[in-house]
User: Which sequence fits this backbone?
């Protein structure tokens, strides 16, 4: 599945949006970018495993936070990281 996700157009667009040669050596930038990459795979796994007939998100037994909330958090992180890239 990892290869399929990396070959997808949406992943390639995400990677281009998070590319910044000026911040390449910055450890904080690398950690945040890796976190967003990892979450992209989790989001794709969640999307693919979800039944097309179920419209409600069932709470996970292992997680206390709803996945849609995690999606909102990472969307905000991505937006802020892109602002940093534009400033640099």
Assistant:
């Amino acid at each position: 599945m990892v290869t399929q996700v990396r070959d997808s157009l949406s992943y390639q667009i995400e990677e281009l949006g998070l590319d910044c040669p000026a911040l390449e050596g910055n450890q904080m930038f690398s950690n945040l970018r890796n976190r967003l990459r990892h979450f992209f795979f989790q989001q794709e796994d969640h999307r693919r495993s979800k039944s097309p007939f179920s419209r409600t998100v069932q709470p996970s037994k292992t997680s206390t936070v709803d996945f849609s909330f995690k999606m909102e958090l990472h969307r905000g992180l991505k937006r802020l990281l892109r602002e940093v890239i534009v400033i640099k």
Summary: The chain has a mean pLDDT of 83. The chain has one domain: 2-42+65-87. The CA atoms of residues 57 and 67 lie 8 Å apart. The longest helix spans residues 27-49.
